[in-house]
Amino acid sequence: MGKLKIGGIELGSRLFIGTGKYPSKDTLPKVIESSGTQMVTIALRRVDATRNENNILSYIPKDTILLPNTSGARNADEAVRIARLARAMGCGDWVKIEVISDNKYLLPDNEETLKATDILANEGFKVLPYMNPDLMSAKKLVDAGAVGVMPLGAPIGTNRGLRMKELIGIIIEEIKLPVIVDAGIGAPSHAAEAMEMGADAVLVNTAIATSDDPVKMAKAFSLAVKAGRYACTARLGAKSEVASASSPLTGFLHEEGF
Amino acid sequence: MSFYEVVSGYKDFDFNGFLSSVNSERVRVILSNDKISDMDFLALLSPAAQGHLEHMAEKARRLSLNHFGKAVLLYAPIYISNYCINRCAYCGFNHDNSISRKRLTMEEIEQEAIELSKTGIRHVLLLTGESKKHSPADYIIEASRVLRRHFDSVTIEVSPLTLEEYVHAAKSGIDGVTVYQEAYDEEVYDEVHLSGPKKDYRFRLDTPERACRANMRSVNVGALLGLSDWRREAFMTGMHANYLQDKYPSTEISVSFPRIRPHAGVFEKVSGVSDIQLVQTILAMRLFMPHVSQNISTRETATFRDNLIPLGINKFSAGSCTEVGGYSGAQATEAQFEISDGRSVGDVCEAILARGYQPLFKNWMSI
Ligand code: SF4
Questions:
Q1: Full set of structural domains in chain A with CATH
Q2: How much distance in Å is there from the Cα of B363 to the middle of ligand 1?
Q3: pLDDT in tens, B61-109
Q4: pLDDT value at residue B263
């Protein structure tokens, strides 16, 4: 299985993990290990640097790439400020832009996301924007300097799977940078489906964190992502809309006399 | 349009007729749907729905897990003044009650902050009685600046402010506003607010909306359950939260479920809300508004609170002291109400962890 190249680095795992919603911080290192992930996202708003036992950063293995996210930001300005804070706190150059100004459905605001991407990419951040799966927005985000795009499969926390499949498919086809399906993935089969479609990676949080056994579930996702990736690179057999009938309707054309 | 028009729209609504018309079958159908309408929400508060509590709890648990995960945010109140010019029949700070009054100086507030922050608490709710003379907006904003040096988030529960004052407060770093309508029923409201500016029902009702317009990050609403018929009050609380979330999608709306507690005054006409009824309210609210934070304070007992965690409560006050100057102990006065859950922050954390949930100290920071 080929490596994922993103923002100038190579990753062996195509499963990204979220760190919110867990029953305890102690679970995190075990989940990270069993998932095999190399990239974890953390909400900077939850990083508590005042006390070590509360600081989520101290539960993440050192060789993991931190992807601070701007969760809680309601507009580009807040996202930019959170990203700068994250860098100042030593969280590195990666940032997942998350701008949500709709608390009813928690859908991202593509326009504000684009503004923040533009500013932060210019400041040298490796920006991964979380977005509604819209091709034009994805193209603009790429032009603005994003190192990949993160379209949602379904609204955050719904576990509903790839509700936006058609639109994500178009983005995968048209965008040359990595496409990471984020949000909505509620089961390993959803992750496998995204990977079979050609997504470069998936980000999973709720489905692992709120399962009865997050460590086992992380393993299940890791295997599903690999299976999906293998299937994609092996090329799935072409789907046919019609069955191959044994007496085709046009068979008569080949009969004598026509 | 203001929420007052929504409330007015229900003035002649036959609540009792509707609630008694709801049968088990209707509740079953509602629980099989993803979307809950206004009337479905009211139906879930009906006596018939009480027979489906377990089913409601299952759904509420799932929704809460999906949206908030296994985390409970902890915060603590900090009372900085108990001067009050209102006469609310249900409150210990009532102007007529002969309790010792105190307003903390900025130095004293800092002492309180230092003591409270030692417990690990990162989010505070600043409270005062209502007195423009003793706790005007400027005093509150100055106090919040002191608190911000020690905490990540400061929200306020003080007398209703004007739009301009809220704008100023939000710009000064105050993250959110809590304001309880106490009673949505206008007649009961008038009855229990004997005198003082709080008597102005309309001004209070529009307060959360002013806070939203001022671009506050979070706004918390609620009714003081026990003053009036709890079903109607819970329904109007949901309508209020829904109205605000629809109109101000970028504000995080949350709800609280305070039940009347014993205090220094007397209010005899309490129409009790049982534990089952409170649980039904919490569950119905979660099904109606899956993304809304639900908050339960130390008014409730430790065991009851712990049992509410898996049902959809995701915000908890902990280690609370409802006296002015109570954390540093130097200037303690009477409490606003008696606390039922007197556990320390550490004990509350252990109880949350024992339920398989994570106590969360920080969920926002001033940026
Ligand atoms: S409820 Fe508030 S306004 Fe009423 S008496 Fe108590 S402190 Fe004063």
A1: 4-234 (3.20.20.70)
A2: 29
A3: 999 999 999 999 999 999 999 899 999 888 877 888 878 888 999 999 9
A4: 56
Task: Report residue A254's pLDDT band, with 50, 70 and 90 as the boundaries.
Answer: low
What's the pLDDT band for A238 if we cut at 50, 70, 90? low
Contacts of A22 in chain B (CB under 8 A): 69-71, 358
Tokens 């359950």 locate to: B225
* Cβ-nearest to A21 among B70, B217, B362: B70
pLDDT at A258: 56
Chosen from B220, B291, B352 to mutate, greatest number of chain A CBs within 10 A: B291
* Mean residue pLDDT across chain A: 89
Q: Is A70 on the interface with B (CB under 8 A)?
A: no
Nearest in space to A68 (alpha carbons), one of A55, A50, A84, A49: A84
In the chain, the amino acid numbered B276 is: I
DSSP state of A89: T
Residue A134: count other Cβ atoms within 10 Å of its Cβ. Answer: 16
- Of 3.40.50.10860, 3.60.150.10, 3.20.20.70, 3.40.190.10, the CATH number of B3-360 is 3.20.20.70
Cβ A79 vs Cβ A98: under 8 Å: yes
What single DSSP character describes residue A3? P
In the annotation, is A62 catalytic? no
Catalytic residue among A5, A25, A62, A96: A96
Residue A148 tokens read as 């990949």
Give B227 Cα–ligand 1 centroid separation in angstroms.
14
pLDDT at A257 over 60: no
Q: Does A116 touch chain B (CB under 8 A)?
A: no
**Ligand 1 center from residue A120 Cα (angstroms):** 47
